[in-house]
Write the structure tokens for this entry.
Amino acid sequence: MPRPTPAKPVPYRNQKDRVIARIMPSRLGRAVAASLMGSFAALMLLGALGESDAPSALARLGFLGAGIGLLWLAFAVWQATAAGLVLTEVMLCDTNGRVLAQVADIVAVRRGLASFRPANGFALTMAAHAPASWAPGLWWRVGRRVGVGGLVARREAAEMAEALVFLVAARAP
């Protein structure tokens, strides 16, 4: 019986399209985060609409607003973490094609304990300002800062941060 030959790797269009690192949030992490936020939303809505001892109508409105906000956030986290992040030699983007940062624009990669960054992740300092954007549980961008992390595996984020450090260092004169 002949042995099957292994599949040949698909050639990339060019070397710059090659994926260097990838981050995919786990299904369990997504489910836990969204269900916890949904549970808190249900408690808030129950406090607002149920027979509660809320001191005033203003408190009930606060509970109602918080419940609706948490319900929206649970849905947003579930949808945002369905995508992952991909690093090539040219850019950092999500798996839907949304570009977070061009590697040529990255000034620094911050990943230490004292740096302002998401949990399990890293932060990038960019050369120029970009419009604010956010994928809850995955990444955010404000001004010249991009934060990656949240519901991602620490090991995958560390590998991507290390690859970014090498790409930025290789670009330096």
